[in-house]
Specification:
With 337 residues, the chain is of the alpha+beta class. It has 15 helices and 9 strands. Strands 4-5-3-6 form a 4-stranded antiparallel β-sheet, with helices on both faces. The radius of gyration is 22 Å and the shape is globular. It starts with 7 loop residues before the first helix and ends with a helix. The model has no long low-confidence stretch (mean pLDDT 92).
Amino acid sequence: MKRQGGLFEQIIDYNNIRLAFLKALRGNRQSQSVVDFCRNTGKNLVLVREKLMTLNCGWGGYLSFLITDPKLRTISTAPFEQRIMHHAIMNIVEPVFDRPMIRHSYACRKGKGTHAAVRYAFGRCKQNRFFLKLDIRKYFDSIDHEALKAQLRRLIKDARVLFLLDGVIDSYETTPGKGVPIGNLTSQFFANLYLAGMDHFILEKLRPAAYCRYMDDFVLWSSSLAELKTMFSLANEYVTQNLKLKIKQPVFGKTAEGLPFLGFLIKEKGIYLLQKSKRRVTGRMSEISALLLRGDITEEKAAERIRSVIAAISLARTNCFRKKLCEKGERLLGLTG
């Protein structure tokens, strides 16, 4: 694959930095750092551009906090100025990252997403008897810096862009030389790219009947359970040796009994919502209710979040459950109106 050059000048173009600022601004207008930055937006954007131009970005200074939805994780967010730089870089580099991706890799890609991955999996479950579901243990925390940098150098030849990306990678670690922060925009793309070589190995060497991946959750299908067990052994060896990762306990199953994937239970006859996903959605609605009643969000914002929660599960056979959620949302908005 031909390496891409000529990216740096596009990254530091003022219009690109202005676009990056608008993207970083979304959903963050109320934070004090954003308010301070916006007091003199033009001057501050020029300073951001100068830092990128001189390769003196001062990466790091993360603010970390814990979340428990859907599981306990540490989120680390960069200062607002650096988030603008992340967007400026990815505005230009994202298409380069997308080039080695297989068709059925669904995370962090335009025109893809969770629902597209689930619909594809539903089609494959109707055509194959068995599945093998895999995911990586502590994935973001385990990404090897040197292995990631080597992948970037197979795609990009612009030394200044590589220097910027190396700086972002080296600004964070969970153990020496490993880990990318879950809260960074760049981390999503790094993590998706990191497994692209594995995708090609599975498709071209193992040749399952079907395959798809959403970040570090991936599924192989076959008409033979024995074939899937052999494929797991070879895939596990590849991931361990080449990517320095560990795969969790594999899940082998019959498609007739249902494939748990991305919060859904996918069966031959339809797509259903897992019970833990129902509990998560119910908890999310309670959280929105509490925020609205305390006055932390407006009715408009609450309605927007309620619609988002309901849309996220619209793919599943959940008419009664969704109806209850809608009624709860209407009552909540009615009480505060």
